[in-house]
Amino acid sequence: MIGHMTADEETEGTDEAREESAGERRERWFAAWSAARLRLADAPASGTLAGRLARLLEEGAEVHDLDVRPDLYGDGIVAELEERTADLLGTEAAAFFPTGTMAQQVALRCWADRTGSTTVALHPLSHPERHERHALTQLTGLRPVHPTTEPRMPSAEEVWTLPEPFGALLLELPLRDAGFVLPTWDELVETVGAAREREAVVHLDGARLWECTPHFGRTLPEIVGLADSVYVSYYKSLGGLSGAALAGSSSLMEEARAWRHRYGGQVFQQWPAALSALVGLERELPRLPEYVAHAKVVAAALRRGLADAGVPWFRIHPEEPHTHQFQVWLPYDPEELTEAAVRQAEEDGTVLFRVWEAQGPPGLAVTEVTVAAPGLLWSPEDVHEALSAFLARLPRG
């Protein structure tokens, strides 16, 4: 009959409407965050294409000669970025990758070939286990084992007593999904030592390694020197457009470049990402210790404000942030919390929180707080005022 829809067509139409609604909601969030005057950190992918291009042109001219030709398949500015990265990390060489997912898959595949073991020990909350669609097993044929399920890095004892052999130990520093948590320096050294005693290599998932130096009280080369390889991101903390690097010995990087080509990562031109990464290394990297220090101030102000407001239960995790990022937990519906955060941005021009998600027992929600350059202007009083305005937008009861 004309005008009659089948059950499949009705479902398809409903799904399309739901997708459109989600897309519109996302656009609303980004518009509110981008227009806000006060924020703790810039929103990801904020601004317009024209604005981002103008910014890259202005900032890029300060760190690199823009009158040279673009890169071709990884030479030129990309090769210069690799050299700069290796120098900063204290490794023999580094290889640029379009994504961190590809970089780590290649690293662990190379180590499997070299050690003769397809077993990788890593935390179940680590990025390859949570956010890569099981690429470890589906693409690389590796088998993950978990030294611990506790929301922290595995201890030396847990690594030493793991009841089966493994060829590589992956340590995510910081462990993002556990709250951007880090071990102490002594704990890290002992855990790496336990892996060595098990005749395993150590790979660092250092997507956010750049901001770990204040917590450890060690330089990047000292931290990286504990491991056999490391992956770092150029956009998560440095503000680059995209891209990552794998760093280690020269022979490992030669092998990694071969696998990068096979995986489709030998991109024709990558100069925008490389240029923005150089800007991040020049402008953001030296400021990360400031961000880490001020994150402790912001976290303390949030804790006092939530207590003063009489919120029935809350958690700032870690209580004193290990990096410039931490979690906030509240006993509210995540959609209500997100809506309150967006309305605050739209109505007051203030971004204290962004998206909240349901995690843990029913009735709890969590969000991640990042403190960067804009957040350095916030005093504890500013945090308390913004928090009060946010809580006032939540449904009573």
UniProtKB/TrEMBL annotation:
<comment type="similarity">
    <text>Belongs to the threonine aldolase family.</text>
</comment>
<feature type="domain" description="Aromatic amino acid beta-eliminating lyase/threonine aldolase">
    <location>
        <begin position="74"/>
        <end position="302"/>
    </location>
</feature>
<protein>
    <submittedName>
        <fullName>Beta-eliminating lyase-related protein</fullName>
    </submittedName>
</protein>
<dbReference type="InterPro" id="IPR015421">
    <property type="entry name" value="PyrdxlP-dep_Trfase_major"/>
</dbReference>
<feature type="compositionally biased region" description="Basic and acidic residues">
    <location>
        <begin position="15"/>
        <end position="24"/>
    </location>
</feature>
<keyword id="KW-0456">Lyase</keyword>
<keyword id="KW-0663">Pyridoxal phosphate</keyword>
<dbReference type="Pfam" id="PF01212">
    <property type="entry name" value="Beta_elim_lyase"/>
</dbReference>
<dbReference type="InterPro" id="IPR015422">
    <property type="entry name" value="PyrdxlP-dep_Trfase_small"/>
</dbReference>
<dbReference type="InterPro" id="IPR015424">
    <property type="entry name" value="PyrdxlP-dep_Trfase"/>
</dbReference>
<dbReference type="GO" id="GO:0016829">
    <property type="term" value="F:lyase activity"/>
</dbReference>
<feature type="region of interest" description="Disordered">
    <location>
        <begin position="1"/>
        <end position="24"/>
    </location>
</feature>
<dbReference type="InterPro" id="IPR001597">
    <property type="entry name" value="ArAA_b-elim_lyase/Thr_aldolase"/>
</dbReference>
